[in-house]
Specification:
The complex is a heterodimer of chains A (about 170) and B (about 800).
Chain A (H helix, E strand, L loop, with lengths): L19 E2 L2 H10 L3 E5 L7 H12 L4 E3 L14 E3 L2 H8 L15 E5 L3 H14 L3 E4 L10 E2 L5 H14 L1
Parallel strand pairs in A: 1-7, 2-3, 2-5, 3-4, 5-6, 6-7
Helix pairs in contact in A: 1-5, 2-5, 3-4
Chain B lengths: L6 E4 L7 E4 L5 H9 L14 H10 L1 E4 L5 E2 L7 E2 L12 H35 L15 H7 L6 H21 L8 H29 L11 E4 L10 E5 L4 H12 L7 E5 H7 L13 E4 L4 H6 L5 E4 L8 H7 L4 E3 L16 H9 L5 E3 L3 H22 L7 H9 L6 H5 L6 H9 L4 H9 L5 H5 L6 H8 L1 H5 L3 E4 L7 H13 L5 E4 L10 H12 L3 E5 H6 L11 H4 L9 E5 L5 H14 L8 H11 L2 E5 L5 H12 L4 E3 L8 E4 L9 E4 L5 E3 L6 E5 L3 H10 L8 H19 L21 H12 L2 E3 L4 E4 L11 E2 L10
Parallel strand pairs in B: 7-8, 7-10, 8-9, 10-11, 11-12, 14-15, 14-17, 15-16, 17-18, 18-22
Antiparallel strand pairs in B: 1-2, 3-19, 4-5, 6-13, 19-22, 20-21, 20-25, 23-24
Helix pairs in contact in B: 2-6, 3-5, 3-6, 3-26, 5-6, 6-24, 6-26, 7-12, 11-12, 13-15, 15-16, 16-18, 20-24, 24-25, 27-28
The chains are: A alpha/beta (about 170), B alpha/beta (about 800).
Chain lengths: ~170, ~800
């Protein structure tokens, strides 16, 4: 079992409320219990075969995908429920209880992030942390302190191992 | 009662007495009032345009992404405002973030207007208050100044009243930052808009003054090309490096070098906007710029660390705080020339040139503060000639040798500390490993992505000078960094507006893409080139300025030509324009104002709200500050926003703390009035935002095409814009955009080549009714096509309302 909770060194300080480090199996169980989870995939997956493969595998478990940047290109023909949206706009809409989601059905209660630039995602998460009630989980390679739950800082190979375990438990 | 005017007067009975009247308080305003075209808001106060701001902020809501959840402004705190809690003074996190944003905006505006004040003061001293403003073949000389203040300046002296207004308003805005005052985020937002608007007035004053007095190109599409890139610097000559934004001192150095036949003996290179303005200096009659442009801010530490400069002269803005320390290590004397940067150096402004040169060349002092720009003009060139042979003699070593490079890379323990602090998360560990094995290619790629902040150096537990390693390993690619940049041409002239205004308003020229700002790119400089080339091929007008204008000139096609050599610089679709330095950004908003004034014959004098309303609904322009890093970038963008021009920043721009984003799914926000009759007019959700971020240029390009769509587009214009939106989405996102149908009003809006295919989709997926015999849309669109509609946000402009 991969321990993804050890290294929680922060990139820069943000505030007092900091993400709880989480292990892959726990993160997966939390998501499985959510009513309307959303997987947000960033452009760092493009050109990274292993990360792309994991993103597709998670999506195939039935999570709808908000594909930000140009990450939508990796989902073409992969039979997953992915839609393009700008991540900044997404963060704005997520805070709006009247937004009906990417599928026009309802808003979301748990947001999972993978494949983002850490400095960019930390800003997005900062907005969600401070101005919404949403639960956010970062399964990134870096500790994202503004998420509700986050993996710690991981080496690339450990990160892939953690994602495998996450997928198994989803 | 008779009126007095400016000028010189003698009094008959008093011998040897002459009275000079330089300025009459209120005279300019009185003259404008006499002309009878003063709009409702000359010299607006902090609250004058609040209603307009609130209209914008109701559609484009602030999205806050705090950099810090705490407030540490006063001794009540620190207060944790996390979760939008209130602090001890009562302010909540949203209001605190908007206050922080306001502070950034007015800091940026103050930097530009402080620059403008310095230049104006200096140039008036040299040329006199009556020196005419001469910016090219235009009657509308100062669109921002005239629209905001109501002043129609003709001389340098006239600009003083405008800069005084800016300074007074900035003081009022700064006062509102103080604890215990504003509590509403929306009012901080409105104040930020005010600061952004002031910024464009301050920038315009700066550039009008320098264009008029320093012989810079005047609306000249044929402005000469200048060499750019670290590779174009001739390191065999003594090298004088100038850094910053204020060209006044460098102009004196160039004059001294010409007058003393030193031009061929000294290599003059510049970084950042001082470089841009140095290659504009005395270029209004053509010729070849004497100076070379090293590059943008991202090259600053790289150039200093190269050890090539023999003397460094800094002025103001975007200059690293550690220039003196870095230069000292390589025995490079530093001269500071502006009160904004003095580095603790001794003020030598009243000393003799010989004594300063002696002290600096001998190393007795590391540098000098010289505020007398005439003295600077003499000292800097002479000092370079004296220092260069001494440094050569000393054998100053900047970078490690080839053997040392391999050894340094091999000493890396792969701990990842450098990568952890790297703002762009660069793969330094893998590059170190490859370098230790003699493979430099990873570092060569990384060199372009590296913004040379030097944070990696600070973190390395093995004390590896990481940046030096990157630069040493990349010497081959650096030597090939040789490009061409068109010197800043200044304003868009009135005749150019007459020619192109109609195409812009109707949409047949699909839009203006303004590539502005700094070099804090997420993925290297090449992105900007790729973006510009794509939009130029698609016949957009690409306007650039500052560091972006530089980086566009760094790449060549297969035939060895840069974009500036391939695309002309007129104000027409498919043209690439460099307006100039950072302060020249005012010409971009100025262009939009000119379209309203010249093409639409709107009165712009003191008439901000009406002109902003016009620009927002009719001119498809989007600003892109892909590498925005500074406070100035936030003030420039906010000034554009108040005028109705949306701006996209790169992902680092999320650190500005707030965006302004609309919700296309809320239909009530996407309605205007038709000024002909006051009826409600549904409009497309474009621009969708006033300020937002994009993750990559692949995402950015379709965003730009979409956000150039405006309610005033005629069918041909809408068809062209929609074609680009669809094609760019397909090319870069691999799919049709989901919302393309929302921009269709009639079948003639559809791209010609795909009309039938798209009609089928509209029928099948969206339930629109199609008459297939005539290939016409019978029902479905939410808005109708009416080219004579007069879209406006302002009820007061509707017929029968005033």
């Amino acid at each position: 079992m991969v321990d993804t909770t050890k290294n929680t060194l922060v990139y820069t300080t943000w505030g007092r409320k900091t993400a709880k480090p989480v292990n892959p199996n726990v993160a997966a169980k939390m998501i499985s219990k959510a009513k309307r989870p959303l997987l947000v995939i960033g452009t760092e997956v493009v050109g990274n075969e292993q990360l792309t493969e994991k993103a597709i595998a998670i999506a195939k478990k039935g999570l709808p995908v908000a594909a930000t940047g140009h990450s939508i290109t990796v989902f073409k023909g992969m039979d997953v429920n992915a839609k393009y949206i700008n991540v900044h706009a997404l963060a704005h809409y997520l805070g709006d209880k009247n937004w009906k989601g990417l599928d026009g059905q309802d808003t979301y209660d748990m947001i999972v992030f993978l494949g983002h630039k850490k400095y960019y995602l930390d800003q997005v998460l900062s907005g969600l942390k401070n101005f919404t009630d949403l639960k956010t989980i970062a399964i990134e390679r870096h500790f994202m302190q503004n998420a509700t739950l986050s993996f710690g800082n991981l080496k690339p190979e450990v990160h892939i191992e953690a994602l495998n375990e996450f997928i198994e438990n989803l | 009662m008779s009126k007095i005017s400016t000028g010189h007067f003698s009094i008959e009975d008093l011998e040897n007495v002459q009275i000079t009247i330089g300025k009459i308080v209120g005279a300019i305003e009185e003259k404008v009032a006499e002309e009878g075209d003063m709009g409702p808001t000359p010299k607006p106060s902090v609250s004058s345009l609040r209603d307009w701001d609130y209209q914008l902020l109701s559609r484009y809501q602030p999205v806050y992404t705090p950099v810090c959840d705490q407030c540490c402004y006063c001794t009540f705190g620190k207060c944790d405002l996390g979760g939008n809690k209130e602090g001890a003074c009562g302010i909540n996190l949203a209001a605190q973030q908007s206050r922080e944003f306001l502070l950034r905006v007015i800091t940026g505006a103050a930097a530009h207007s402080g620059h403008g004040r310095h230049l104006l003061h200096y140039l008036i001293e040299r040329h006199g208050r009556d020196h005419p403003i001469d910016v090219g073949p235009s009657n509308l000389l100062a669109p921002n100044v005239q629209m905001v203040t109501g002043i129609k300046p003709k001389t340098l002296g006239d600009l003083e009243a405008a800069i005084e207004y800016v300074e007074e308003q900035l003081t009022q805005l700064l006062a509102t930052i103080h604890v215990g005052q504003e509590g509403a985020a929306m009012d901080f937002e409105s104040k930020a808009m005010h600061g952004g608007m002031l910024d464009h007035v301050g920038m315009e004053i700066s550039d009008l003054a320098q264009i008029s007095c320093l012989g810079m190109p005047k609306s000249d599409p044929e402005a000469p090309l200048a060499e750019i890139g670290m590779g174009c610097i001739d390191a065999t000559k003594p090298m004088l490096l100038v850094i910053g934004h204020n060209v006044a001192g460098v102009a004196n150095m160039i004059d001294y070098m010409h007058e003393n036949d030193l031009s061929d003996k000294i290599e003059l290179g510049g970084l950042c906007c001082t470089a841009i303005d140095t290659v504009r200096y005395q270029m209004d009659k053509g010729g070849k710029p004497y100076a070379k442009v090293v590059g943008s801010l991202a090259k600053e530490l790289k150039m200093i660390r190269s050890g090539i400069p023999d003397v460094i002269v800094v002025d103001e803005q975007c200059v690293r705080a550690d220039v003196l320390d870095e230069a000292k290590r390589l025995s490079i004397p530093v001269i500071t020339t502006n009160e904004k940067i003095m580095y603790g150096l001794r003020n030598r402004s009243k000393d003799k040139a010989d004594s300063i040169i002696e002290d600096l060349a001998s190393g007795k002092e590391d540098g000098a503060l010289i505020l007398d720009l005439n003295l600077l003009g003499e000292v800097a060139p002479r000092l370079v000639l004296k220092v260069a042979p001494l440094r050569k003699e000393k054998g100053i070593k900047a970078f490690p040798t080839d053997e040392e490079l391999i050894a340094l890379a091999a000493s890396c323990v792969q701990c990842g500390a450098c990568e952890f602090v790297c703002p762009n998360d660069l793969g330094i560990m893998a590059a170190m490993k490859a370098c230790a094995e003699g493979d430099l290619t990873k570092f060569e790629i990384l060199h372009d992505y590296c913004i040379a902040c030097g944070r990696c150096d600070q973190e390395c537990p093995k004390d590896i000078p990481v940046l030096n390693v990157i630069e040493k390993a990349s010497q081959k690619v650096i030597s090939q960094e040789k490009g061409m940049m068109r010197s800043g041409r200044g304003q868009i002239s009135d005749p150019e507006i007459r020619q192109e205004g109609v195409n812009l308003v109707m949409g047949t020229t699909p839009g203006i893409i303004a590539l502005v700002g700094c070099s804090n790119y997420p993925a290297g400089t090449k992105d900007l080139y790729t973006l510009a080339e794509e939009m130029l091929k698609r016949h957009y007008i690409v306007v650039s300025s500052g560091c972006s204008a530089m980086d566009l000139g760094m790449y060549k096609d297969e035939e060895g030509k840069t974009l500036y050599e391939r695309y002309p610089a007129k104000f027409l679709g498919g043209n690439l324009i460099n307006v100039g330095s950072c302060v020249s950004n005012a010409h971009i908003t100025g262009t939009a104002i000119k379209v309203a004034a010249i093409f639409a014959q709107r009165n712009i004098t003191g008439n901000y709200e009406e002109i902003a309303d016009y620009v927002m609904n009719r001119i498809g322009a989007v600003g892109v500050a892909w590498g925005a890093y500074s406070q100035k970038a936030s003030s420039i963008a906010t000034g554009c926003n108040r005028l109705g021009i949306p701006v996209v920043v790169g992902p680092h721009g999320s650190k500005y703390r707030r965006a302004l984003i609309g919700k296309p799914y809320e239909e009530e926000h996407w309605k205007l009035y038709d000024a002909r009759n006051g009826e409600t007019l549904p409009i497309p959700a474009s621009p969708e935002f006033l300020l937002t971020t994009a993750e990559t240029i692949e995402e950015l390009m379709p965003m730009l095409a979409k956000n150039c769509i405006r309610p005033s587009d005629n069918n041909m214009g809408r068809m062209i814009k929609l074609t680009h939106y669809i094609e760019l989405s397909q090319k870069y996102l691999g799919q049709m955009p989901e919302d393309w149908h929302n921009f269709v009003r009639t079948e003639t809006d559809l791209p010609l080549a795909k009309r039938e295919e798209l009609l089928k989709i509209l029928e099948k997926d969206h339930g629109w009714e199609i008459d297939w015999k005539r290939k016409k849309i019978l029902s479905g669109p939410k808005m109708k096509s009416d080219v004579s509609a007069q879209p406006t946000n302002l009820k007061r402009l509707c017929k029968g309302e005033c």
